[in-house]
What does this fold into?
Amino acid sequence: MHRTNPAAELYVLPRTGAELNDAIRRARSMVNRRAALASASVLVPIPGFDVAADVGTLMRLIPEINQSFGLTPDQIGRLNPRLRAVVYQAILIAGSTLIGKVMTTQLVFAALKKAGMKVTVKQVTKYVPIAGQALSAAISFAALKYVCHQHIQDCVRVVETLRTPDVRFLAA
It folds into this structure.
């Protein structure tokens, strides 16, 4: 019976501090760029368009953040069963509802609700000339950044947990 090297199966996860820092930097850059683009959607005069843009942005961003940390459902599924169990336990400990899951609108709305984004306030402020649109865009940008940066922190906690010698021993 051929036994695979558990360390080799961690290839999808950032293995060094430099790789982890690189993943964090890439994820934050991606979040800033996409949040700025999504917040510009308040300029479209279609009711609900900006909220749909926020939800759509998160539904794409969260899986991309997961992927940069090696924490998509597919990446986790490729790990050996013992290590996979350790990964899921680390996700539970981190308290994340977005790591290792297929994104649904329900998960995204729950994340936005947790961030305190008030859709009705955003919609009302959108129709106040200029200042309202600016406030609505700022709310959108801040909420998206908050949700994504919290998610990045959760991913970092999971990866750091998996990089400990005790976890590597358990996964062997």
In short: Residues 1-11 have pLDDT under 50 and may be disordered. The longest helix spans residues 131-162.
